[in-house]
Amino acid sequence: MVSTDVFTPEQRSAVMRAVKGRDTTPELAVRRILRAAGIGYRLGGRGLPGRPDLVMQGRRVAVFVHGCFWHGHDCPRGSREPKANAAYWRAKIARNRARDETSRRALEADGWRVVTVWECDMKAAGFADRLVAGVRGQAATVSAPASSD
Length: 149
Hints:
Helix content: 25-40%
Distance between the termini: 45 Å
Shape: globular
Largest sheet: 4 strands, mixed
Radius of gyration: 17 Å
Strand content: 5-15%
Number of helices: 4
Structural class: alpha+beta
């Protein structure tokens, strides 16, 4: 089997090690918005299904900050097909989506309100207000309104 990777296995390993799993740019932006609104949170969600990125124990709110590609969002970036090793990435993203859904259901069954922030929604006007309202329980969704093309 011929590899289409432009990196050696050692270089690819170094590149993948550099992919951040926490303190990502979108996660830091969400944290800044919540902190500016006076909303406290804890990081990590250890012990909760799916280990949410942010947890507000008193509000019973769990916040997940998802990258569109890695979690298979239905936006242009999330639905693009990988060119190299496509079968592996399709299966990986499908597993991520299934895990996300299982975690969301388990948290909701335990009485948690789950807020999912998609990377692409953060660019929409009014995102910060929708996020704060969603965390405070005053909104049904944090996602940007669907455009009526």
